[in-house]
Design goal:
mainly beta; five-stranded antiparallel beta sheet
């Protein structure tokens, strides 16, 4: 009996919830229209293509990590030609990366990060500039997405 309890404890400790192991965790959200984002504000992607696992909130614009693992996080950006835009991929309030889209044309920027994230971490996209950002979109250019690539047991060291 003690061996069964030990095996269950190991499985539970490796998975942050034994029964969630085989469920997919993926989201893709876009902007449905041209959007103005305030200084240092979070971009709230409102057109949800997928949100399996329910970890992305279109209300806050944030992805909340439900369990420890390696995640792929992607963002694309297209600004309106009247302004240049810097968007940052942010984790728990700290900048991880920046995308840039210049003025006078419709340049398109993209970035993908592969990250070891812990349960409760929050990832979002925000305007890195001190002035408003005007994003050009009609439902296809500005995208925020993420997917769990692999769960990582709690007993593995931080990377």
């Amino acid at each position: 009996m003690l061996s069964y309890a030990f095996i269950f404890a190991i499985l539970y400790g490796c998975s942050d919830g034994f029964w969630y192991n085989n469920r997919p965790l993926v989201f893709t959200a876009l902007l449905s229209k041209d959007t103005v984002v305030g200084s240092k504000a979070v971009v709230k992607y409102d057109r949800i293509l997928s949100n399996l696992g329910g970890a992305y909130s279109p209300i806050t614009g944030k992805f909340t990590v439900p369990f420890r693992g390696i995640y792929s996080i992607s963002c694309s950006l297209m600004s309106q030609p009247i302004n240049k835009v810097h968007l940052q991929i942010t984790k728990n309030g700290k900048k991880l990366s920046i995308l840039y889209s210049g003025a006078t044309t419709y340049p398109h920027a993209g970035q993908t990060l592969h990250l070891l994230l812990n349960k409760g971490d929050k990832i979002w996209i925000q305007n890195a500039n001190a002035k408003v950002a005007k994003l050009h979109d009609h439902g296809s250019y500005n995208v925020f997405s993420g997917a769990l690539l692999m769960r990582v047991p709690r007993y593995f060291l931080h990377g």
